[in-house]
Amino acid sequence: MPDWVSTFGAKSDRTVVLLHPAGWTRHAWTPHAERLADRYCVVTIDLPGHGVHPAPEFSMERAVADVDRVLDSFGTAALVGHSLGGYVAIRAAAGDPERVDGLLLAGAAYNWYWRSPVGLALSVAQRLQSSLFEGLSHFPRLARRFKHVPDDETQLPPPHEDTHPYWTGFVSAIRDITFRQSWQDVEAYGGPTLIIHGDTELLAGQAGALAARAKANLRWIEGDHYAPMDDAETFTAEVARFLDDVYAVQMEASASENRSHRVRDLLRVGG
């Protein structure tokens, strides 16, 4: 695998792919991956324009192609995405639902579609915000006040990695996802889906609306938009519960199918 992909755990275990928020890198998931690696093969990737990914800016098409590349190597997987990573997970799951065992979306329930009044307003606001942040990026001291960085040093890239600037990835990502539809893609996936939303996050009603529309489960966690990153222990517990439920159902379905095959075989022999 390329240097912008990291793996934890045994490849023989069920696979979960963790997709990071805008401006961050695959290392944001280190404490989460370490907690999951005893039961799952955990894959983290730098999205385009982030970390050490070769692409200079974010592109949804490239991001989905990268997820597909991981699935080519590991087979089926559950996708877990926070914020930007959630929208990448949505698009990847809708494009190839047979290879996605489950979909967990954290802070990625907003409807950006321009034909929706809320989506249009959100997208315009985000485009304006991205222009503001692009300007601020030229004034590092001022920009640092608006940059959300983890307190846990293990979530930061190691010093030897020559990573893309935070604002380059953040701004290009925000501009790419605005005005895109995502709710229809969640419906198109149709597999096991869990939406997690911070209880103090803005526009909480969007999470409930998407959950109802896509027949997804919804769970609230304490905190704001970055709670899944800042409280790795709590969020990982939610991820583990979701994965355990998804794969328990799959194992039962597989066992039931095997029993049916055995019954049919016995009936053929008896006949």
The shape is globular
Overall radius of gyration: 20 Å
Helix and strand element order: EEHEHEHEHHHHEHEHH
Overall pLDDT metric: 92
**Count of alpha and pi helical runs:** 10
Structural class: alpha/beta
Give the low-pLDDT segments: none
**Beta strand count:** 7
Key features of this structure:
271 residues; alpha/beta; 7-stranded mixed sheet; 10 helices; 14% strand
Written account of the structure:
The protein is an alpha/beta fold and 271 residues long. It has ten helices and seven strands. The protein has a seven-stranded mixed sheet with strand order 1-3-2-4-5-6-7, sandwiched between helices. The radius of gyration is 20 Å and the shape is globular. The termini are far apart.
In short:
It contains ten helices and seven strands. The chain is α/β, with parallel strands linked by helices and 271 residues long. Helix 1 runs parallel beside helix 10 and helix 2 packs across helix 3.
Write the layout of secondary structure elements.
Layout: E1 5-8, E2 15-19, H1 30-36, E3 41-45, H2 60-74, E4 77-82, H3 84-95, E5 100-106, H4 117-136, H5 140-143, H6 166-177, H7 183-189, E6 193-198, H8 205-214, E7 217-221, H9 227-230, H10 232-270
Parallel strand pairs: 2-3, 2-4, 4-5, 5-6, 6-7
Antiparallel strand pairs: 1-3
Helix pairs in contact: 1-10, 2-3, 3-7, 4-6
